[in-house]
From TrEMBL:
Family: Belongs to the bacterial histone-like protein family.
Keyword DNA-binding: yes
InterPro entries cross-referenced by the UniProt entry: Hist_DNA-bd, IHF-like_DNA-bd_dom_sf
Keyword DNA-binding in record: yes
Organism name: Desulfofustis limnaeus
Protein name: Integration host factor subunit beta
Pfam families in UniProt: Bac_DNA_binding (PF00216)
Upper taxonomic lineage: Bacteria, Pseudomonadati, Thermodesulfobacteriota, Desulfobulbia, Desulfobulbales
Cited CDD domains: IHF_B (cd13836)
Domain of life the protein comes from: Bacteria
Annotated spans, Disordered: 49-68
Keyword annotations of the record: DNA condensation, DNA-binding
Amino acid sequence: MNMLKKEIVDQVSSDLTLQKQDVALAVDIILDSMAQALTNGRRVELRGFGSFSTRSRKSRQTKNPRTGKIMDIGMRKTVHFTMSKSLKDALISGKE
């Protein structure tokens, strides 16, 4: 099951007894800062959670499954996530 940004806002607002609109603004600022850093080629590290970085994918050719036509896909950047050791251990042991 997916966790939505709204659910994160609700949880933090409840835990800290803050207004939802203030928490939503803080979450938006955090996500915007992360996106800006990744756009600038910087790595984002959240200790105890993991790190986000960008990677380049080479250009390649593929076949359109609908038409069978060969298509060229240019070089592009993707976001890569590496989980922290503590998160990995928690997932393996089933603890939160």
